[in-house]
Amino acid sequence: xxxxxxxxxxxxxxxxxxxxxxxxxxxxxxxxxxxxxxxxxxxxxxxxxxxxxxxxxxxxxxxxxxxxxxxxxxxxxxxxxxxxxxxxxxxxxxxxxxxxxxxxxxxxxxxxx
Length: 113
Prior knowledge:
Layout: E1 4-9, H1 14-19, E2 27-32, H2 33-46, H3 50-62, H4 69-84, H5 92-99
Antiparallel strand pairs: 1-2
């Protein structure tokens, strides 16, 4: 495959995909090699086709994310506390080192400060 790969385009709506899974008119879309590889890897990991992965991602992208005003206000409060230094932030490398101990004899609960 050259610099661009081609993947089938799924039906335009989730309802269409459920009613006629890939039985409708097929179209081709072009994607770069990296995207094609990632789509194939995701499809293989889930045991489904690339077209089904794309259809699922499309349906997910079209789904509205609902968050209550209270939850949004709490997220804003937490983010402001982190930015101001009020709430402690653990550096990424410290968390990564701790995660590497999971499933090993060196594992210990995360040190809470």
